[in-house]
Structure prediction request, 304 residues.
Amino acid sequence: MKIKIIAGVVASILIAQARAGETVVLNNLQGPEGPLFIDGNLYYVGWISNTLEKWDGKTSTVLNHTEGCGHNGLALTKRKTFLLACTDEHGAIMELDMSGKELRRWDADKNGQPFTGGINDIVVAPNGAAYATVFGHYVDLPTEVIGKILYLASDGKEWVEVANDLNYANGIGVSPDQKTLYVSETVGNCMLKFTINDDGTLSQRSNFALLNLLVPDKNKSWWLGPDSMKIDNKGNIYVAQWFGGKILKISPAGKLLHVFEIAAGDGTTNVAFGEGGKELFVTVVKDPNDPKAKGSIVKIPNAD
Prediction:
């Protein structure tokens, strides 16, 4: 009993420390997601506002507004263009230039299969190849298990399905050595990992982490689970927990390294590394049950 009490006190101290230094940098957003910090500017999207915006530290500018897209995941290519995930249930992937102009759009994979359930997130690997997740219909109860992972070769023209039967595939990340792919299954509160083969296909699907074994559940919901993620140059994974109000820092071995409790809301969606990785920008919805997904972007210190 004493051990449990001491552990609880230590956990409370760690949480308090994690909340310290949280500052709101942008507010009154609708469905904030996809943050990327590039050359001193913060890019972010909104799945309710259907926008891609750029914040230069003082002013936000709308770069793209496409009704019916549901802007969600955002990734920077080697060509200095964006790949944007349209999470609308029909699903699409757009390539945009840095000013937000649409260059290309995919509505189906190489075999003509539409992205039913919406594209949730996208990651570009160091070699220029890209992976994206097909999510599923956001309804209660979430009974459909139709999540997929798509792959686009660095010189490819079409997306190819490389994994399926995922329980609402969400955030996705590639290890620095490009040997491992991580993906969030939001329903189930589970993270999976795959071995990346030389041709970009995936194998050795396995469980990586159950978030409820790493941290106590803050809420009871089908949707309590891992959302989007980013991976640092040491291979540590920073994953947002939707309905959990936190960012978890997890080692490549699956060990919990740090918990960033976010005071701005329970609907944490994504994270971006600031200059030199010393700070984190976190997109967060105040109340995950809010149909307008009103939220903000906060800045917090990173942890060693």
In short: The domain at 17-301 is CATH 2.120.10.30 (Neuraminidase).
